[in-house]
Design a protein that fits this description.
The structure is a single chain. The chain is an alpha+beta fold. It folds into three domains: about 80 residues; about 80 residues, Outer Surface Protein A, domain 3; about 240 residues, no CATH class. It has eight helices and 22 strands. Strands 1-2-3-4-5-6-7-8-9-10-11-12-13 form a 13-stranded antiparallel beta sheet, with no helix packed on it. Strands 14, 15, 16, 17, 18, 19, 20, 21 and 22 form a nine-stranded mixed beta sheet that branches. β20 and β21 form a beta hairpin. α4 packs across α5 and α6 crosses α8.
Length: about 425
């Protein structure tokens, strides 16, 4: 009996030791953030999260930055500089944000290194946007985020135009001056529509030279939806229509390594998204819904086309001062949803990254459908990194995004979106040269 007990005890101890050795031999997942040849961590916070880091562009000379950024301790972007290698390496985008993720300012640069346009924000809303070019400077002024005035002054100070927006009266008044003399002043509906003109180089809204515009409305009822998918880029250009689609955009091959900053100058939604997610450490989760309700287009009458062509030939400079270079030929109406799930402070190891990505997808899908919630253990693992799901739409209330953590929060913003009427998705322009 004693021998049996001794043998049983020895067997139990042997099994226990063997089990411990097996557990000790199982490699533990490494969630640390380390530098490599492409990604350099320059400083970290006490919890190991990134404070400052940079990506290197290996297609160019050694140690040439692709992006440089700094996070707050809570994971939000503090500053970011983004570079382009086309047509030559240059800084093209720079942003600064507060520790509660409100924009402070942003700047965009030309390939020659000159400031192209900048936006200053107040309480998270735009307060002033200035656009520079060889032709002159235009200043957009805002109150509580609403555009109230656009003022343009030519480079030689010989001419100017001022557009004043009155939301209460639902009007916009355009005044154009040359050599100190007012050459025209016109009042139009507050919202730009068919026939509205613009100096596209500086984004200057001008007068409408067409009379008795008869739009040709076409009902579309086109809808497109895709469930959350992994994207290599944080650029929403495929999902978000440029608000102003100028004629020359049809002939641009965008450098896919950079944001389409030419659209950021006139598309508040696009600008808001790329300034919140200027850099990425991993793939991003994207869900998108587009609905085109219809479009309204028109063709100027033949006599007006002829008259404007003659006026343009007689004095091209005066013509551009009054009408700009393009006019709205078509207006699209509808709605857009753009949801993005972004990861920051990602571990360097491939296994850890894959594990985090799988949990991020599960979390985002749970927010959308309310099914398969993360376990307490899975939450603990996902909390080792920074993960945010944000809901954007064409509604003004969603322009800067709504952070979503639960399915009920998703249902609330979705209901707001569904109950809202369709709005202007895009103004499509035609050039006066083709009249």
């Amino acid at each position: 009996m004693n021998n049996f007990f001794s043998r049983s005890l020895l067997l139990a101890v042997t099994v226990l030791l063997s089990s411990c050795q097996k557990e000790e031999s199982i490699p533990q997942t490494d969630y640390s953030i380390e530098s490599d040849d492409y990604f350099q961590v320059e400083s970290t916070y006490p919890n190991g999260w990134i404070k400052e880091a940079r990506y290197t562009d290996y297609s160019l000379e050694e140690d040439t930055p692709y992006s440089e950024f700094e996070y707050y301790e809570n994971g939000f972007i503090k500053t970011a500089k983004v570079y382009s290698s086309y047509p030559q390496h240059h800084l093209y985008m720079e942003v600064s944000r507060s520790d509660d993720n409100k924009p402070l300012w942003s700047k965009y640069y030309t390939p020659e290194g000159e400031l192209w346009f900048k936006t200053d924000y107040k309480n998270g809303l735009p307060s002033e946007k200035i656009v520079y070019s060889e032709k002159g400077t235009s200043v957009y002024s805002y109150e509580a985020g609403n555009l109230v005035m656009v003022e343009f002054n030519s480079a030689d100070d010989s001419s100017s135009s001022i557009t004043v927006f009155d939301k209460n009266a639902e009007t916009r008044t355009v005044t154009v001056k040359k050599d100190g003399e007012t050459i025209l002043e016109e009042t139009y509906p507050y919202t730009e529509g068919l026939g509205s003109t613009m100096l596209t180089d500086n984004q200057v809204p001008l007068i409408n030279p067409f009379s008795n515009i008869e739009g040709n409305y076409r009902k579309l009822n086109e809808a497109f939806f895709h469930s959350p998918i992994w994207e290599n880029s944080t650029d929403p250009i495929k999902e978000i229509h440029p608000f102003r689609y100028f004629y020359d955009y049809f002939h641009i091959n965008f450098d896919r390594t950079t944001f389409a900053s030419k659209l950021a100058v006139n598309s508040d939604l696009y600008q808001s998204i790329i300034e919140q997610y200027p850099v990425k450490e991993s793939e991003v989760l994207v869900m998108n819904y587009k609905y085109k309700e219809g479009s309204n287009g028109f063709l100027p009458r033949s006599e007006e086309r002829k008259s404007l062509s003659e006026e343009m030939a007689q004095d091209p400079e005066l013509f551009e001062l009054k009408y700009g270079d393009e006019y709205v030929e078509k207006v699209y109406f509808g709605k857009i949803i753009y949801m993005i799930g972004v990861l920051r402070n990602m571990p360097t190891g491939a296994n850890a990254e894959k594990e985090i990505q799988n949990l991020a997808r599960k979390k985002m899908e749970n927010i959308i459908d309310g099914k398969k919630p993360l376990t307490a253990e899975e939450h603990e693992i996902l909390n080792k990194v920074w993960f945010e799901v944000k809901f954007f739409s064409t509604l003004k209330a969603h322009r800067n995004g709504i952070v979503l953590k639960t399915h009920n929060e998703y249902k609330e913003v979705l209901q707001e979106f569904e109950e809202a009427e369709s709005s202007v998705l895009q103004l499509e322009y035609a050039t006066f040269e083709h009249l």
